[in-house]
Amino acid sequence: MKKNKTKLFHKPLVILLFSFLAFPVFPQNYNLLTSFGHFQNAGTFSINSKGIIFVTDLETNEIFALDTLGNILNYTGGFGWQPSAFDQPVDVFATSLNVYVTDKNNQRIQRLDNDLNFISELTTRDKGNEEESFGYPLSAATSSLGELYVLDSENIRIIKFNMFGRFITNFGSYNYGIYALKTPTKLAISSSNDVYVLDGKKLIRFDQYGNGNNIRNLDTNFTNIRIYNDIMTLNSTDEIYMLDLRDPNSFLSKLFLFGSALNYPIKAAIVFNNKLYVLTEDEISVFTKN
Fold this sequence. Notes:
This protein is mainly β. The chain is 0% helix and 48% strand. It is globular and about 55 Å long.
């Protein structure tokens, strides 16, 4: 069921982040502007080019659409297996037209429009083609060409589909040598259609054809990765880092956030319109750079 709600409550909020990585890290300072939200157990979020924020709630199995002021525009979901119902919506990825929800325990990717109306679903586990079959997906995102990449936890690989949901290829499985995935958790895609995967304490990069071409060793167990306009954010439950993919000479930046006490754990972080949006279990906090 899709409904409208009023503006969520606001309350002011911090965090001082420390970590050590196996490559140069430079600090950046951010100050709190505002916070809003009242989620029960937020999972992750995505922001589209229109400035609509889409949040998954793992407790209620709902998807919320909010504006950047914290007003709820729509929400849909609830536990179930029918269209627009979910069983552990562990990831969400939004474009200017579509919202892709990784519906883990229903073993499918649901596609909604920006008003959270159901459009279609992608499920392949029972189709009989092992090459395209995925089970218990963990993450999904589209490229600039509209191709959909699904992180398959059952077979530990990434599966690529075209914009019509037809299978193209899979990659990252056990026969990929040093680029074989072991314990992947999330993926994200750059504007050049490189696919970045968090895999334990590694950040693995594949090109759009599935060829592995870079591995970064990490000293922190990051739990989420987001890319918006080629600004990558990585976060653990209590740390956030940022990397500008547009600059080949940029280094990972450690973010210091000031304002008030942050409600851990951190679920995800996104840089949008020069502001940093940080999602915790119950709210979104918005920061501006010093």
